[in-house]
Amino acid sequence: MFSSFVCIPRAISFQSITSHSSSKSEKAQRIDHHFRKIHRSVNMESLQNRYLFAEIFMRESEYAERNPNARLIKLGIGDTTEPIPDIITSAMAEQALALSIAQGYKGYGPEQGNRELKRAIAETFYKDMQVKENEIFVSDGAQCDISRVQMLLDSSLSIAVQDPTFPAYIDSSVIVGRGGTFKAESGKYKKIVYMKCGAENNFFPNLSTTPRTDLIFFCSPNNPTGSAASRQQLKQLVEFAKENGSIIIYDAAYAAYISDESPRSIFEIPGAKEVAIEISSFSKFAGFTGVRLGWTVVPEELLYANGYPIIKDYDRIVCTCFNGASNIVQAGGLACLSPQGFQALKRTMRNYMENAKILVDTFESLGLKVYGGKNGPYVWVHFPGLSSWQVFNQILERAAIVTVPGIGFGPGGEGYIRLSAFGHRDSVLEASRRLRMLL
Amino acid sequence: MFSSFVCIPRAISFQSITSHSSSKSEKAQRIDHHFRKIHRSVNMESLQNRYLFAEIFMRESEYAERNPNARLIKLGIGDTTEPIPDIITSAMAEQALALSIAQGYKGYGPEQGNRELKRAIAETFYKDMQVKENEIFVSDGAQCDISRVQMLLDSSLSIAVQDPTFPAYIDSSVIVGRGGTFKAESGKYKKIVYMKCGAENNFFPNLSTTPRTDLIFFCSPNNPTGSAASRQQLKQLVEFAKENGSIIIYDAAYAAYISDESPRSIFEIPGAKEVAIEISSFSKFAGFTGVRLGWTVVPEELLYANGYPIIKDYDRIVCTCFNGASNIVQAGGLACLSPQGFQALKRTMRNYMENAKILVDTFESLGLKVYGGKNGPYVWVHFPGLSSWQVFNQILERAAIVTVPGIGFGPGGEGYIRLSAFGHRDSVLEASRRLRMLL
Predict the structure, then answer these.
(1) Which helix (H) or strand (E) segment is B280 a member of?
(2) pLDDT exceeds cutoff 50 at A91
């Protein structure tokens, strides 16, 4: 979701802007006068410039420059590192090569995704949940689908998010005009409801005090806390949405990592199809972060106030603003969901979750409160009395480990840091050694 | 850009909607009462349901059902049909397989695209135009980039489009709220300026009578007319944009097909970097319609009225609403731009353009006025006195050839049909035979 590179255009010379205008000086002046008339969108204007992972990258680079011999361990960005099982990459290679022969060539596919892949997604992830193939929209990833869902829904709708949570829900909401002004004191956008999800409430919002909003973004297992909502909690959430006439936009990108009885889909909850859209991804369970594949389920039962099916509008968005995921990548997705592919991926996931356990044990042995790492590949560590940037800096400076300061996920993340379990085992073990020495 | 499949959800049973609510009837009633509160966005509401290629597909399917033995020739949707040169698919296969080994695995890449690919795009398409690598944003295709540019810019901005033109400019503008109400009598959205580009004005708008708008969508070579704007015309367009303080959103998806001296990029025009964004694609020149790869150039010189660089906001959009094109596909893009790859693609393009010539000759020999087919792979045929749907129907019913009625590209397309030259040679020759017999 986050590259280590952010384009920062060089300073623009204002002189260069007018250098091409007409040689007739009168006309040139007239042109210069009218030259730039397009105002910046208020939404982009209110979007905070502080781009979390760019800031982290800057600090990391500065550190590396000052310490050229340090062996930096990156447990910051949640980026997969283990190779993709051969059965999956072979399927993609085969599909690529098939495009070179007359009988194998394929042009545009359905914008909504290939039928076999949609069927495999329905069978693998939505068994007994009455999710139909035509309700599944295959895409190039969850982050992209979040913004397509944003385009779908009226910009005047109000939203609630977990606090802390993945920043793209808020940022894309601000981009389409649902944020309001940013308040530096609170670290919050005025029009957004932040549902505190901390250790004190078992990482689930207190719905009895949560104001009604039109939309509720909900990520489970949560990024960054790694905690998955229980069946009972999700039942409450669905009932809350029904009572309020809200739509839940449920992000299940980490669902495959759930190890206990927590639901892996909102559609495990009876009645959820009337109130929820689910977004999911191959990125984290199949190592497809750079390959790009995801999907979104928009149930037929989900209707606007006037009774019009939302799926019809989403289909239109997908056909107008998107053009289908790559056919090569979709072939890989299908191989991921074959019995052999899925078994191989489970081994990789187990490996990451063992990393998580190593990190959890490390911090617990140091007497710190640690969350996550059981149903999701993130470890969420509390450092009482310290700011999360302070902790980030100390761990970087003294152990050469890159983490993510919790505040980057919302004000509710202050005092915490997130570690990704997606690293290689030797890095995680080395990180554990350094942390034990440091703390 | 258009699949042959459009999801039309089955009729929704309104009874089923309430079937999951609580067993306590009082509570159930309360929930039902509040159940659906989300209003449909006014923008989606004003979007016309008539989805051109869905309508075509329906008529085509009906015909096929009535005539099970007919050999249908599809020259409708502009979908590539020739295999991709082996050097390109091999590069993708290799990249896919590399993801299975520890040293070859890659996760998230830069959202803006891989550096080598951006450099190759700059060198191949923007030589001597001062387009820098960091101004190029690699994507999953032009249609997707159009909607990202729509998200970038304030929804209150006014727009102009060529008439006729590719429908996605208008549809995506309506989705973000720039359309206003649709007028059935005129076939136009109230707030959109339609710049008539017909044979009578050499397919270039009369700018002296064109009202000022904030944004100008301009596609050259144009889809559907196949005509490319000349250098002189594009100079006028750039000057017009400067005088009005407008931004040109220039779609160059078919630029590689230009065979004369017409510019292949808006940035060939001095000063264009201050007023234009260019969107382009691998779809049509590399047969990547199903593989998915494109790019957008946002120049550093392009500024908002307040002097803020638009590239900074676009970078933010790309980082927030997109996550980079597939690494496998980007490897293919790089191979397309290798000397050997590009030579091979030129052969395929020549083949398509020979198809175009066959179609042009066919219609001309029948005494019809034919446009396009020289700088773009579309042939645009005038049938005076007939509606384009009438012509579409006759050619379908009597020659079993699928075309596209010109009116689907805007009211200015009435009386015309578009034929795609992207078919196989034998189909095109057979179509030519049938048309000569029919007309």
Answers:
(1) strand B276-281
(2) yes
Contacts of B289 in chain A (CB under 8 A): 107-108
Residues of chain A found within 8 Å of residue B48, distances taken between Cβ atoms: none
Torsion angle of the four alpha carbons B270, B273, B279, B280, in this order, in degrees rounded to the nearest 10:
50
At residue B294, does pLDDT exceed 60?
yes
Same domain, B313 and B368: no
Domain membership flag for residue A28: no
A1 lies in some domain: no
| Whole-number Cα distances in Å, A343 to A337, A340, A347 | 9, 5, 7
Smallest Cβ–Cβ distance between B107 and the set A143, A144, A290 belongs to A290
Average pLDDT over residues B364-375: 97
For residues B158-183, average pLDDT: 96
Tokens 């394929």 correspond to what residue?
A106
Which residue does chain A place closest to B27, by CA atoms? A243
- A225-238, pLDDT tens digit by residue? 999 999 999 999 99
This model of the complex carries an ipTM of: 0.93
- Same domain as A91, residue A76: no
CATH number, domain of B376, equals: 3.90.1150.10
Residue A42 falls within a domain, yes or no? Answer: no
**Is omega for the bond preceding B221 within 30 degrees of 0, making it cis?**
yes
A278 Cα to chain B: minimum distance (Å): 17
Chain A and chain B share a number of CB contacts under 8 A equal to: 382
Query: Do A312 and A380 reside in the same domain of the chain?
Result: no
d(CA B324, CA B252): 20
Which residues from B are below 8 Å from A98, CB to CB? 89
CB contact under 8 A, A155 and B155: yes
Instruction: Give the per-residue pLDDT at A52.
Output: 80
Cα of A374 to nearest chain B Cα, Å: 23
Range of the domain at B267: 86-339
Q: Which 8-state DSSP code applies to residue A199?
A: G
Residue A138, CB half-sphere, CA atoms under 13 Å: how many?
Answer: 28
Bridge partners (DSSP) listed for residue B381: B370, B417
* Separation in Å, CA of A68 to nearest CA in chain B: 23
CATH of the domain at B230: 3.40.640.10
Residue among B290, B267, B295, B291 at smallest CA distance from B280 = B295
Instruction: Give per-residue pLDDT as tens, B207-216.
Output: 999 999 999 9
Q: What is the DSSP string of A272-292?
A: GGGTEEEEEESHHHHT-TTT-
Tell me the chain A residues in contact with residue B276 when contact means C-beta distances shorter than 8 Å.
Answer: none
By C-alpha distance, the chain B residue nearest A21 is: B271
Same domain for B356 and B395, yes or no, is yes
pLDDT of A184 > 70? The answer is yes
How many alpha carbons fall within 13 Å on the CB side of residue A363?
22
**For residue B9, which residues of chain A lie inside 8 Å, CB to CB?**
134, 300, 309, 311-312, 315
- Domains held by chain A: number: 2
Which residues neighbour B63 within 8 Å (Cβ) at sequence distance 6 or greater? Answer: B70, B72, B396, B397, B400
Residue B7 has pLDDT above 60, yes or no: no
Do A386 and A277 lie in a common domain? no
DSSP B76: S
Mean predicted confidence (pLDDT) in B183-205: 96
Q: pLDDT at position A439, please?
A: 76
- Same domain for B376 and B421, yes or no, is yes
pLDDT at B27 over 80: no
A57 with A114, same domain: the answer is: no
Rounded to the nearest angstrom, the minimum Cα separation between A406 and chain B is 19
**Which residue of B22, B34, B36 to mutate against A (max A Cβ within 10 Å)?**
B36
Q: What residues of chain A lie within 8 A of the CB of B306, using their CB?
A: 39-40
Q: Is the same domain home to B196 and B333?
A: yes
| Angle A68-A69-A73 from CA coordinates, rounded to 5° | 95
